[in-house]
Input
Amino acid sequence: MKYLSLFISFVFALNTFAQDFTLADFYNYNPELERRIDEQFSYMNDTLRVGQLIVPAVGKHGKPTEHVVKLMQQGKAGGVLLLNGTVESFTAFVNQFDSICEVHGYLPPIYSADAEPTLIKYKIKGTTPVPKTNAIKTKEKVKEVTNTISADLNKIGITQNFAPVIDASPNKTVSNRSFGLAMDTVIGFSNIFIEETQR
Output
């Protein structure tokens, strides 16, 4: 368990490291993977280790950029949640924060967003248009929409998506953000969305 946040950092953030492994490699014991994780973990002091658990938000509804920059400079953030912005502004944040971490010798942060089909056009302006979640009616369409969203996120540098909404739609807050009222459909389509996102 002590390696959980470091594990996630490797899966999603260390591009040169992760190229040697797939997500499936992290579900089973792998001596080489274990060695590399131990090596990185040994370089970290307690502050850097705890910093891996801090995930500030940046963007229209996030912290001021200066605050997040300071956390990055001090190695006190393991991720960044990108909230309400544009493809261009989020790409710039990713490049800025990655550069800061590289200069200081820190792990690059994990970038996350709430990129569900219904709200992505509002939360990340400039992404490829997709239908609202409740308008997606087939497994093939779930795959297509998920791959479109994932491609946009990957171009930005976002590797963690807090989607889909797994709820039934009569809830006013959820409304058109879920796959409908039938929980079998909601669960089945959500599983497809998650599996496609992880490819």
